[in-house]
Amino acid sequence: MFQALAKASAALGPRAAGWVRTMASHQLLVAPPKALLKPLSIPTRLLLGPGPSNLPPRTMAAGGLQMLGHMHKETYQIMDEIKEGIQYVFQTRNPLTLVISGSGHCALEAALINVLEPGDSFLVGVNGIWGQRAADIGERLGARVHPMTKDPGGHYTLQEVEEGLAQHKPVLLFLTHGESSSGVLQPLDGFGELCHRYKCLLLVDSVASLGGAPLYMDQQGIDILYSGSQKVLNAPPGTSLLSFSDTAKNKIYSRKTKPSSFYLDVKYLANLWGCDGQPRMYHHTTPVVSLYSLREGLALLSEQHPQCQHRGPVALQDTGQEAPPTFIWSCCPVGPIASPQSRVQGGSLGCSQLPVRLQGGACHIGLLGPLIKPLPRAGLVPGCPCKPDDTHPPREGEALSSHTGKGSRVVKGLENSWRKHREAAAYLHGRLQALGLRLFVKDPALRLPTVTTVAVPTGYYWRDIVSYLIERFGIEITGGLGPSTGKGYPDKASPPALLPPSLLRSPH
């Protein structure tokens, strides 16, 4: 056999040389880019805009793992674990739960392309850019779009939505849970039940809110829910989460026309993601490495953290300094801080917002910066039930030790995430208002915990503020988006110690 191959190669020699000459018969007109001949350089940035977020070490490490084939059984196992993670963070048991190979915007398109048919009535809450985008896509699909338009910062009541449902009799209602362009958190309780009373499906955008604000897909009657990977999940952008109720699935599977996109056809995607009980078939090449990172982002949010039940007061001594405390995960939330000075009174700060270390088997608290320091005994929490054998070494990605044992309970990661975002946002709002800045969303109950929007101060141009932070401190915040452009600048509800000292001390 080898002799036959050798003879064939010799016979083809002149012809093969001709092929090579033909392939190289033209000179290259474009030289290799000089920029690509240099090492890749990435600046250090603290991303406090509405997304993407900085990646934790565990997620970055996942992105450096070896590639697998997109149809390998190990990849399918990772995909199945991701589905379970989505069901957890969405709080749903929907079998038709999957990932879209694209950003959150791609998930919005997938939802609308599969549910809407030409001529369908589509009711859209337009109180920011994402409602605008949903209405635009609906028009492109030939739906009869009925926008309920509000100024940025507005939200929808059950009465307003019911009027739209009664008037337009839509097959689908779109609402944005967390409108990142304005910082509004849309209440959702009762909207699912209301929609179903009018034979309408409820579609909710949770890209900016998932993991930061309570959300219960099944219990709130949400039929279609989507989110993105790059916000609270702290995974790279480029993948998105999507789930359909059985009612929404029936609408899709009983369509009279094919969806206008093959790539986003949920019937094919359901098979690819193992949602239909059939052998998986090739549809498209999934972003395997991005799935590793998404899996780890879901895992970090899903992990359970033990919390000490102790609620004793902590006596702290005020040093009279202005440096703020930082929010770091603590195993032992001990309740209000007792302080002789008014600047830390009011019970707004607790040990759960302070760095904690375990020394000699007891909980200790500390602060970054000299604002307040523990009284004698190094901040020992009186009566804390922690014992030396209750401790464990810090896990990867944790800043300090956690513990379990007598007097402790397990708090699920999702609930912890909601709490941490709520507490961090409340602290940030208070500090910003103390500087004389005005929050864009007036009602505290309607403020999105993950994105804080601040009205641009009189006499300042928002681009100058954004540029100052990125150039002087490497901190990203952004201006408004869509209808809110120029009206405010959003910033994540982030640890206040990470904000620049000049911004904390003075509006100038």
Automatic annotation (TrEMBL):
Domain Aminotransferase class V: 62-305, 413-480
Keyword entries, A-Z: Aminotransferase, Pyridoxal phosphate, Transferase
Entries under CDD domains matching the protein: AGAT_like
UniProt xrefs under PROSITE patterns: AA_TRANSFER_CLASS_5
Catalytic activity: glyoxylate + L-alanine = glycine + pyruvate; L-serine + pyruvate = 3-hydroxypyruvate + L-alanine
Family, similarity comment: Belongs to the class-V pyridoxal-phosphate-dependent aminotransferase family.
Protein name as catalogued: Alanine--glyoxylate aminotransferase
Originating species: Callithrix jacchus
